[in-house]
Design a protein that fits this description.
The chain has one domain (5-157, 167-293): Orthogonal Bundle (2-methylcitrate dehydratase PrpD), CATH 1.10.4100. It contains 13 helices and no strands. The protein has helices at residues 5-15, 19-31, 35-56, 72-82, 89-106, 122-134, 138-158, 163-166, 168-186, 191-204, 221-240, 249-262, 279-289. The longest helix has 22 residues, at 35-56. The radius of gyration is 19 Å and the shape is globular.
């Protein structure tokens, strides 16, 4: 198992292989399974993501039991169809897919946690937008997931991917960084450019707190996945343009870990601070859970 982004990039560069291939080979070695078995497992993850996006953008969309979230993805779908978007269609396609997935999650539907349920929309948003933008094949999409997953394993082992440990920077921030790195590869970039994209994307979201209203993975979680998807595309484009991160990817990950540990507990998924502690947040908590949880 690679313990740093730089070691992974070095291995890919020296072997003249894409990051996804190095990660696949590592999985074959560590699991003892065949390439076909490993690919088929990842195809199931891809199918789960696709089904969630389709469910979230069909009909009237999906709505959570609390009524806090739901129906935004179908609104964005209609907006893209009937208006000239300010951010551009590819960007809003990513936003649509990200929100659709997280609305399905909030409605207790089936999603693929990448890397967590709360950040499950970021990667699908990026991936399916790129599928349409770059006419990706199924194999390219599966490789996108291997690259993202390999990067995510390093982040998880060097730092954290849990909001309770490191705030939303550890969830959506990590997902955005993973997606940025994978996006660079499917667009034809180098392993080193993927590392720069990861570093840029994560740097942009350092310090992002986890402050869900009523402690539920709905608000502001759903919209933050949209931000994560957009941030990843921007970071990937910056890297592909030749822009670099002054601070290396591994150091950015270490900084994220340190920042997370410095965050007060109120801003780490407890629902006690930030937006959750606003008058509106407190009213929603009281409405959902009752007076006994008011304090």
């Amino acid at each position: 198992m690679f313990k740093s982004i730089q070691k992974l990039v070095t291995a890919a560069t020296e072997q003249e292989l894409p990051l996804s291939e190095v990660i696949i080979n590592q999985e074959i070695q560590s699991s003892g399974q065949s390439r076909e078995q490993i690919f088929n497992r990842m195809k199931k993850n891809l199918a789960t993501m696709k089904a969630a996006v389709e469910r979230g953008t069909s009909g009237q969309g999906v709505h959570s039991a609390t009524g806090l979230t739901g129906g935004q993805a179908v609104k964005i779908k209609a907006y893209r169809k009937n208006h000239r978007t300010l951010a551009g269609d590819a960007m809003m396609a990513a936003v649509e897919g990200a929100i659709a997935t997280n609305e399905v999650n909030a409605a207790m539907g089936v999603i693929c946690a990448t890397p967590t349920a709360g950040s499950s929309g970021t990667l699908p948003g990026i991936l399916f937008a790129l599928r349409d933008r770059l006419n990706l094949t199924e194999e390219q999409m599966v490789r996108f997931l291997f690259t993202a997953g390999g990067m995510g394993m390093i982040i998880a082992n060097k730092a954290s991917i849990a909001g309770a440990s490191g705030g939303c920077q550890a969830e959506v921030g990590s997902a955005s960084a993973m997606g940025a790195a994978a996006a660079v590869e499917v667009a034809g970039g180098t392993p080193q450019q993927s590392a720069h994209a990861l570093a840029i994307a994560m740097s942009n979201l350092l310090g992002l707190v986890c402050d869900p209203l009523a402690g539920l993975v709905e608000v502001p979680c759903v919209n933050r996945n949209a931000t994560g998807a957009g941030n990843a595309l921007i970071a990937a484009d910056l890297a592909l343009a030749g822009c670099t991160s002054v601070v290396p990817a591994d150091e950015v990950i270490e900084a994220m870990d340190k920042i997370g540990r410095q965050m007060p507990v109120e801003l780490r998924e407890t629902g006690l601070g930030g937006l959750a502690d606003t008058p509106t947040g407190q009213q929603i908590k009281l409405k959902i859970f009752g007076k006994e949880l008011e304090s």
